Every structure is written in C-alpha cells, then in structure tokens.
Amino acid sequence: MELGTIEREIFVDADPEVVFEVVSSPDHVKQWWPDDARYDAAPGSPGEIVFGDPAAGGMVVQFSVVEALPPRTFSFRWTHPVGETPARGNSLLVTFELAPSGRGTLLKMTETGFREMGWEVAVLEEQYREHVTGWDFYLARLGPYAESLAARP
Amino acid sequence: MSTRVITGSVDDELWSAIGDPTRRRLLDLLLADGGGTATSLGRQLPVTRQAVAKHLGVLDRVGLVRGSLAGREKRYQVDDAQLARAAEQLASVGSAWDARLQRIKGIAEAIQRTQADRRGD
C-alpha cells in the first residue's frame, strides 16, 4: 500500500452483530471516541463528532457514513471541511471490517488518507485528546488528595 | 548527501514512506542487522532485489535511511533521529486507535455478557 495507512486488528469476544452496533451507532461511538456524535447511519448524510466543549476550546469535526453493511462493514469519512462533500483528498477514511472468528469477531480497522491530508489533522486531534485526558487524570487525583489534606488534624 | 529541509510536505512523504509494510520490514531488518544492501536485504524478504532497491530509494528520499558506497553496492543504515521523529508521529495516531479499539472490545464484550445472562446461557 502506497498511502499512509494505519491498520489494526483485534479479537472481540462478542458476536459480529454486537460489535457492529458498537462501532457504528452514535450512542456507542461516543463511549469510545468523541464526547458527542451526531450523525445518521445512512450513507452520505452530513454529521459531526464533537471533542470537548466547543464553547471552551473544543472541536467540532465533520463526519459522514460511507458504507453501513451490518454486520460486516462500517466505514466513514471525517475531518472534511464544513459544506464540502467528503471524498478522497479532503478527509480521512476509517473502515471497520468484521469477520466471525471462533466464538467472537475479528475486527479490523484501517484509516487512510494521511498522504493527501497530511498527518497534522490526525495528530491535532490526538494532541487534543491527550490534553483533555491529561487534565482528567490529574483533576481526578487532585480531588481526593485535597480532601486527604483537609482531613488532617 | 543533500541537506534536508524539514517542511510539512516532507512530513507527508515521511508518513507515506512508513505507511508501506515492506518498507517497515526493511527498517526492522536494517535496525536488527545494523545496516544492509539491497542484495542482503532481498535475501531476507519475499521480494526482488530490484523492489528492495526501489523501497530503499523511497526511504532515502525522506531521510529515514542513509546510503554509502561499499564496493559495487550501496550500504544503507537507518537514520536514528529521523526514525525517532517519524515513530513519534505515527505512534501518536496509532496508539490513539489502540486505545479506541480496546474500548470497543470492552463495550461489545460487556453487551454480549449481558445478553448471555438474559438468555440464561
């Protein structure tokens, strides 16, 4: 493959139907990725995913389903500019492929488009996540620590 | 050797150079062996010497390897600084997906267990 591509594979101890729901439905997607997800599962409908609070430095990113063939394939494009039709060259393409395997599902993920887009867009999102989770991490510990200090005689 | 100016477009090429599995394998071999030629690397891979030479050319253009003349062939070594830089960029995005896939696995398996309990499996 000539284009910059990320490929990952993971075994999930659940039926393909269940895994398909988790990778495709907005309610589940926001449990494993953005803070909010608003899109129609119908291919081509415009949608968006939200990281953090857009009113306080968060990001709203365009998101559009390309293909939804339960329980085998789910793909979407993201990061295209608002108002533009997502296509090769203006967005990253993420594809989930599901195959039954033993008692579970082999889930394969590929993300392509970095060559056309530059990797900056993906790194930007990742840095934003790190920033947010970083603060979550420290704030979660700061609370109990502050309480333990206050509880001292 | 030419001086390489690091710009955004070079970063894209860097990404594309590393995006290829054969080239990643070449980098692995070069790191493990401390260097190699198209011939020595071709012996360890299921591709022709010519294909290896072409991949080495791509890696050379983005500064991931450096070639020096050794007899009739060029001997290549990995440029550690450029590789570290590329690895950092790739790891950032790749590890984000690793974490997401782990969460997908956790959620799906929890749903499966709940359904199995309900059925009384």
Topology record:
The complex is a heterodimer of chains A (153) and B (121).
Chain A: E1 5-12, H1 16-24, H2 26-32, E2 36-38, E3 46-51, E4 59-69, E5 73-78, E6 92-101, E7 104-112, H3 114-117, H4 120-151
Antiparallel strand pairs in A: 1-7, 2-3, 3-4, 4-5, 5-6, 6-7
Helix pairs in contact in A: 1-2
Chain B: H1 8-18, H2 21-33, H3 38-42, H4 49-61, E1 65-70, E2 73-78, H5 80-119
Antiparallel strand pairs in B: 1-2
Descriptive overview:
- The complex is a heterodimer of chains A (153) and B (121).
- Chain A is α+β, with helices and mostly antiparallel strands.
- Helix content of chain A is 34%, strand content 35%.
- In chain A, strands 1-7-6-5-4-3-2 form a seven-stranded antiparallel sheet.
- In chain A, strand 6 (92-101) and strand 7 form a beta hairpin.
- Chain B is mostly helical.
- Chain B contains five helices and two strands; from the N terminus they run H-H-H-H-E-E-H.
- Chain B has helices at residues 8-18, 21-33, 38-42, 49-61, 80-119, and strands at 65-70, 73-78.
- In chain B, strands 1-2 form a two-stranded antiparallel sheet.
- The longest helix of chain B is centred in the C-terminal third of the chain and has 40 residues, at 80-119.
- Classes of the chains: A alpha+beta (153), B mainly alpha (121).
- The A-B interface holds A 1-6, 8, 10-15, 18-19, 21-23, 28, 31-33, 105, 107, 109, 111, 114-115, 118-120, 122-123, 125-127, 129 and B 8, 11-12, 15-16, 18-21, 89-90, 92-94, 96-98, 100-105, 107-109, 111-112, 115.
